[in-house]
Amino acid sequence: MQISHEVLMRRLLSFKQLRQDYGHPYSRTQTWRKARDPNDPFPAPVSVGPNRTAWFSDEYEAWVESLPRVNYAEPPEPDLDAANEKDATSTASRTRPRAR
Description:
The protein is mainly α. Helices cover 46% and strands 11% of the residues. The chain is built from 5 helices and 3 strands, in the order H-E-H-H-E-E-H-H. A hairpin with a 2-residue loop joins strand 2 and strand 3 (52-56). The longest helix is centred in the C-terminal third of the chain and has 15 residues, at 80-94. The protein is elongated and about 90 Å long.
């Protein structure tokens, strides 16, 4: 049986290393919930020994890269002419003479 060197050279990360080296934002419990959820793309851990699990660093890094980016760009300026016309028409339809 021939084993690829790529598999042997993959780095394993403990939960502690995920937190320290990568700034993993989730608690241990939330991490396990994400790992067990089949609809979540979070990588599954591997069993390293009894009561010991780890994650492959390349799978974790790929997951981090797949997260959506937040765009903090300035929102576009509103068109004030269109907003004023809309307000004028909506105000006119709401003003009715009061019945006595």
